[in-house]
Amino acid sequence: MSCAIYGSYGFQRSAWRNRIAICKAVEALPSDAGKPKTSDGADPDPHGEFENHVGKVLGADKLSVASQLLGLRARFQNEAAAQAHTAVALSAHQLNARNQRFLDDAAELLGDDDFTAVFGVKPGAKVNLVLADPSK
Fold first, then answer.
1. Is residue 6 a part of any domain in this protein?
2. Range of the domain at 44
3. How far apart are alpha carbons 77 and 81 in whole angstroms?
4. Considering its fold, how many domains does the chain have in total?
């Protein structure tokens, strides 16, 4: 659910790209420089995990619906990322309400069975990904 809404690495995509680039640069150093190589050489795809999941779940016969869902998600994420750069931080309640609107729109688009298959919960289920007090 979190990957569907926030993506694999959240909304701060440029920050993650920079961190990935730094890690790749460190991995490229010779192993005798004291830096062990920890990667299997796979290139991380921080923005394809949910897209791949949707493609596998909905299959080739529902490409139009998959495309509409991914478009809905892109609009949601763009608006959320723009909001994140404003001076007014949303409360946990507001963030969860915004996320719920996306999920409700997705449920309307997909229908009950496909929504459950894609998101792992039944349409209308209340999902609170953001905790008011993260220590709880």
1. yes
2. 2-119
3. 6
4. 1
Q: What is the pLDDT of residues 67-105, one digit of tens each?
A: 999 999 999 988 888 887 777 888 999 999 999 999 999
Q: Is residue 76 part of a domain?
A: yes
- In this predicted model, what pLDDT tens digit does every residue of 27-39 receive, in sequence order? 777 655 444 444 4
Cα–Cα distance for residue pair 119/3, rounded to 1 Å: 10
CB 69 within 8 A of CB 110: yes
